[in-house]
Design goal:
Blueprint: H1 2-15, H2 21-28, H3 33-57, H4 64-82, H5 88-102, H6 105-117, H7 124-147, H8 161-176, H9 196-202, H10 205-234, H11 239-263, H12 269-289, H13 293-319, H14 324-359, H15 367-388
Helix pairs in contact: 1-6, 1-7, 1-8, 2-10, 3-5, 3-14, 4-5, 4-6, 4-8, 6-14, 7-11, 9-14, 10-11, 10-13, 10-14, 10-15, 11-13, 12-13, 12-15, 14-15
């Protein structure tokens, strides 16, 4: 149960800010598309760097749970500072520092969970679903009740409150992480600077291939968070409705997570990942149509299926190659590729596309053109996964 609370708080902190950050930068701070892309790209740049700290440090010099606590403590302070800034030249570097602190936390929570699940790693979805619940709770708490309780004409002025809420939840998790169970395997003093056991596993062809597909899917997933809130605003949804509407994806994700363990008993990890990528294609296809509310909602709902079926499953596929000594480092290294390189590429590409297709065209915003880019990348990821990923990745024998 303590692992479930950890996941809840982790994604509560993320869900308070990530869905509306681009809207906050656009409507509250009045940044341009490329400025928004640069700020969001700060988190991506940090994701290239900060997991390296976890790669070298976590469970080698310091327990993973202690590093998780420290990261959230620093992140909480920086998020409070960020909420007080209005100039691009101040927001960008502070957000970079925040992202550097927050960056290792997702792979750390994954690694801590897998450590305690041991050979029951297929139950990861049962723990991870509490993170999705945390995301949904904050979406409704802040989006529906807090923003809707204010003046609709000034709801944008209340967007900074999301940053405060995220800071509070990070502070709570910083304290709570210290109460987590002790790791079954104690940290070891490093015998060399580089965690060779993690790097050796990462260089296996199938792990590299999983990283490549995750890179592509990570790029298209960031397109969604970059453009979804402004897109819904463009379709005349008010600020108070945006977070609850986007939370439909997480509600569907909860249902998808609940079926994942049963589904994996009947079909392979590869097949589930393909279903997740197909959901990505449907999501962006629905957005390209700019159709009825039902079509838009179906695209948002597809996000939950895509995330549960692809990202949760790919973490399991990667963990199939781990032993206790390589696990934490490997999850951090995988995060560098997926959340680091993928996010840097995605935010800069999305910012450029947002300027070109939405903010600057002479004939008005063209969101279908914007969404066509991640749709095309999703198709490439589908073909790569279908042709190259093995049906059943060979798991190594693990002593845990």
């Amino acid at each position: 149960m303590r692992l479930a609370v950890m996941m809840f708080l982790q994604y509560f902190a993320m869900g308070a800010v990530l869905p509306i950050l681009s809207l906050y930068l656009k409507d509250y701070l009045h940044f341009t598309g490329i400025q928004i892309g640069v700020v969001l790209g700060m988190s991506s740049l940090a994701a290239l760097v900060s997991p390296v700290v976890g790669f070298f440090v976590a469970d080698r010099l310091i327990l993973a749970k202690h590093l998780l606590s420290l990261c959230h403590l620093i992140a909480a302070g920086l998020m409070v500072l960020l909420g007080r800034q209005t100039e691009f030249n101040h927001v960008a570097p502070i957000y970079l520092c925040y992202a550097l602190a927050f960056g290792p936390t997702v792979p750390l929570t994954n690694a801590i969970t897998f450590h305690h699940l041991g050979t029951g790693s297929r139950r990861f979805g049962n723990i991870r679903v509490f993170g999705t619940i945390g995301w949904v709770v904050v979406a409704w708490m802040f989006g529906f009740f807090w923003l809707r309780g204010g003046d609709p004409d000034t709801s944008s002025d209340m967007l900074p409150d999301a940053l405060t809420l995220s800071a509070i939840s990070s502070l709570v998790l910083a304290v709570y992480a210290l109460t987590l169970p002790k790791r079954p395997v104690a940290p070891r003093s490093p015998t060399s600077l580089i965690p060779k056991e993690s790097l050796r596993v990462f260089l296996r062809p199938q792990v590299l291939l999983l990283a490549a597909v995750s890179l592509m899917v990570g790029i298209v997933d960031r397109f969604y968070y970059f453009g979804a809130a402004p897109f819904l605003r463009h379709l005349a949804y008010d600020d108070a409705s945006i977070m609850p509407l986007m939370s439909i994806g997480q509600i569907i994700e909860i249902a998808a997570m609940a079926t994942l363990a049963v589904l994996l008993k009947k079909i392979s990890l590869k097949t589930v990942m393909i279903l997740g990528i197909l959901a990505e294609i449907w999501r962006f296809g629905a957005f390209c149509l700019e159709g009825t509310t039902l079509i838009i909602i179906s695209g948002i709902a597809a996000h939950g299926i895509a995330y549960a079926f692809f990202f949760t499953t790919v973490f399991m596929a990667v963990d199939d190659h781990c032993d206790p000594q390589s696990r934490t480092g490997l999850h951090q290294l995988f995060a560098i590729i997926t959340f680091g390189l993928g996010s840097v590429s995605a935010n800069l590409l999305a910012g450029t596309c947002f300027d070109y297709f939405v903010l600057n065209p002479t004939d008005g915003p063209s969101y279908p053109s914007f969404w066509a880019v991640p749709a095309g990348l999703s198709i490439i990821a589908l073909i790569t996964c279908g042709l190259a990923v093995k049906q059943n990745s060979p798991a190594i024998t693990r002593p845990d």
